[in-house]
Design brief:
The chain is built from 14 helices and 12 strands. It is an alpha+beta fold. The chain folds into 3 domains: about 120 residues, Winged helix-like DNA-binding domain superfamily/Winged helix DNA-binding domain (Arc Repressor Mutant, subunit A), CATH 1.10.10; about 170 residues, Tetratricopeptide repeat domain (Serine Threonine Protein Phosphatase 5, Tetratricopeptide repeat, Alpha Horseshoe); about 110 residues, Alpha-Beta Plaits (2-Layer Sandwich), CATH 3.30.70.270. The chain has a 5-stranded mixed β-sheet with strand order 8-10-11-9-12, sandwiched between helices. The chain has a 4-stranded mixed β-sheet with strand order 3-2-1-7. It is elongated and about 85 Å long.
């Protein structure tokens, strides 16, 4: 039976359903076979190796080197046979054992049985990509649908839980390249048809998976400009150039600088000459204040940083600064406005360039503090509080602060 179509899975309980892109899960009917994969690490490592090299016959010696690199071959040969038997038994019910083996032995090695009924997200992903390429010229509408279906399957790196084996890296890079090429193909087709809003949505989802892929940021900014969202384009440019410098130590590429020229030209309503552009860029690069944005832009940066935690594990802290009277009531009138302006000025001057500030409402500010531990983040808020108290003329309005780490977000963004 071999590779099964996804729409048939609900009707046939004997089909092995395998997810490998951004997650690892093996299901058969309603049963999650891989649910206890942490307790059977070596067994599932064997399964993943067969899956990765499913088009090859793998010699026993190769499997021994992968699974037992430092053990004697006599002992590990028997262990390998036992492990293969356990894997076969896990993948097949007793009534299926004779007719439906997923792992077979032939010509002195083991191989994945391509005729057994299974569905693999990575294969479906690649097939949809190839289909989209084949029909993109003659039938762009169907190509768009094919590419979008492929994107919906890609949740992240191939077999992301494998960190100690090098053999997974070539295929992981291969699927990532396909993913980025699909977005490029969609960008080309949708740009020709003026469907820039769809490009924006595709890029927003893609940036949660690949936050440091510069090409995606270029597509995103370009689509924002084409939609006339100049302020959003400038806000994202400022944020991403700061992020790249802070995390990677790199300055804006020529492609990003060209987009910045478009942003400035759109803002000013004129076409700037080269000397003006250079002066503008030098002025921008010389700025040292933190980045201040509106609540909607802050929400996007918050979501981007919190999703990134799932991949990097790097802690980002969210700070809340509130201006109140001593009895916790809300200040009124010009006194509150003056105190808030003073607080924003202190934040811009005393936070790092890559930090993000937002006036959330008339009495509260939010700040994102990446790259710090809790004690460092706490000291930052303490420094802000001291400067506020030293610089304000009002003794009635008090700044109160709270600090919490961001929690990883897992909800999907629908295209």
């Amino acid at each position: 039976m071999g590779r099964a179509k996804k729409d048939s899975l609900e009707r046939e309980d004997n089909i092995l359903e395998i997810y490998s892109l951004g997650q690892f899960m093996v299901k058969k009917g309603d049963e999650n076979l891989s649910e206890s994969s942490n307790k059977s690490y070596r067994l599932w490592s064997l399964f993943k190796y067969f899956l990765t090299y499913r088009n090859k016959t793998i010699p026993s010696d190769t499997l021994l080197e992968v699974l037992w690199p430092e053990e004697e071959s006599d002992l590990s040969q028997q262990a390998l046979r036992t492990l293969v038997y356990r894997l076969r038994k896990l993948l097949c019910k007793e009534t299926e054992m004779q007719n439906q083996q997923y792992i077979t032995f032939t010509q002195g090695g083991y191989c994945w049985n391509d005729s057994a009924p299974y569905w693999l997200d990575a294969e479906e992903f690649e097939n949809l990509y190839n289909k989209g390429l084949k029909i993109s010229q003659k039938n762009p509408y169907d190509a768009i649908n094919s590419f979008k279906k492929a994107l919906s399957l890609y949740k992240g790196d191939y077999l992301p839980d494998i960190t100690c084996y090098d053999w997974v890296i070539p295929l992981r890079n291969y699927y990532r390249r396909i993913y980025l090429d699909i977005i490029w193909e969609l960008k080309k087709i949708l740009t020709k048809k003026g469907r820039h809003d769809e490009i924006i949505k595709i890029c927003e989802k893609a940036l949660l998976i690949e936050p440091f892929e510069e090409s995606l940021h270029q597509y995103y900014i370009e689509a924002l400009l084409n939609e006339g969202k100049i302020k959003d384009a400038q806000a994202h440019y400022e944020y991403i150039t700061s992020l790249f410098y802070r995390e990677l130590g790199v300055k804006p590429s020529n492609e990003l600088r060209n987009l910045y020229r478009r942003i400035k030209s759109s803002n000013e309503g004129i076409e700037m000459d080269l000397s003006s552009i250079q002066e503008s860029l030098e002025e921008r690069q010389g700025e040292s204040s933190a980045f201040c944005c509106d609540p909607d832009t802050f929400r996007f940066f918050y979501k981007l940083e919190s999703r990134r935690l799932l991949r990097t594990g790097k802690v980002v802290f969210l700070g809340l600064l509130t201006l109140t009277n001593p009895d916790y009531s809300l200040p009124q009138g010009n006194a509150l406005k003056e105190s808030m302006n003073k607080l924003l000025e202190i934040l811009k001057k005393n936070l790092r360039k890559g930090d993000v500030i937002c006036q959330w409402n008339e009495a509260q500010c939010l700040i994102l503090l990446p790259g710090l531990n809790f004690e460092q983040a706490r000291q930052v808020l303490k420094r802000i509080e001291d400067k506020y108290q030293a610089g304000t003329t009002s003794t009635q309005i008090i700044m109160r602060s709270k600090l919490e780490p961001l929690q990883p977000q897992t909800e999907e963004i629908n295209l």
